[in-house]
Amino acid sequence: LKPLHRQLVPLWSLIVLTEPLDDAAWASIGWANREVVASTRLSIDYLSRTEDGRITFGGRGAPYRFGSPIRPEYDLHGPTHERLRGFVRAWFPALRDVRFTHAWGGPLGMPRDWHPTVAFDPVTGIATARGYVGHGVAMTNLAGRILTDLVTGTRSPLTELPVVGHRSRNWEPEPLRYVGVRYAQWALGRLDDKVARTGVPPTGRSLAERIASH
């Protein structure tokens, strides 16, 4: 929507899925239950054990496109998916020969301040819920309950939450948006690689970390 075009930047989260692992493989890596796991990488990763015994491994890394377009073909990005497969093998050396059966992805709505918005305008009748920053499974449920109270005029603890009526500042216009987001993606990836190589944590003071801060 044109009036909200600069409110969100689409950033892709991509996922790879292994073949089902047998009991010996699970025992070798010591992952007995279905805990959801992540690391402290600035560029984000997350993984879980599925009910049918596979590993899903997801993360960021697919490049931002000029002008914030959203297209189905962007849900797949070969270099990022291959990097995620490499992460699985790095996390679990015993699975170095594991096969991967699926790869997919999708865009996240990223506000400039990483702050979700839920609002309802009784004059126009327009409701909005956006900017879930990758936490849409939980936030969509919460936003739906907030909007129920806003639309029906019910005052409740939900309508007092800071997401209600929040307005993030707009992202910068192009080409500044493209340059800033792509630089942050590249630089955060380099910081992660440096930490993995040296074991020294980032300072939090780098330009990329300040751009990506919220």
Describe this structure in words.
With 214 residues, the protein is α+β, with helices and mostly antiparallel strands. The chain is built from five helices and seven strands. It has helices at residues 23-29, 78-91, 136-152, 176-198, 207-212, and strands at residues 9-18, 36-38, 45-49, 55-59, 100-110, 117-121, 126-130. A hairpin with a 5-residue loop joins strand 3 (45-49) and strand 4. The chain is globular and about 60 Å long. The mean pLDDT is 93.
Keyphrases for this structure?
214 residues, alpha+beta, five-stranded antiparallel β-sheet, two-stranded antiparallel sheet, 5 helices, globular
Could you write a compact summary of the structure shown?
With 214 residues, the chain is α+β, with helices and mostly antiparallel strands. The protein is built from 5 helices and 7 strands, in the order E-H-E-E-E-H-E-E-E-H-H-H. A hairpin with a 6-residue loop joins strand 2 and strand 3.
Summarize the topology.
Blueprint: E1 9-18, H1 23-29, E2 36-38, E3 45-49, E4 55-59, H2 78-91, E5 100-110, E6 117-121, E7 126-130, H3 136-152, H4 176-198, H5 207-212
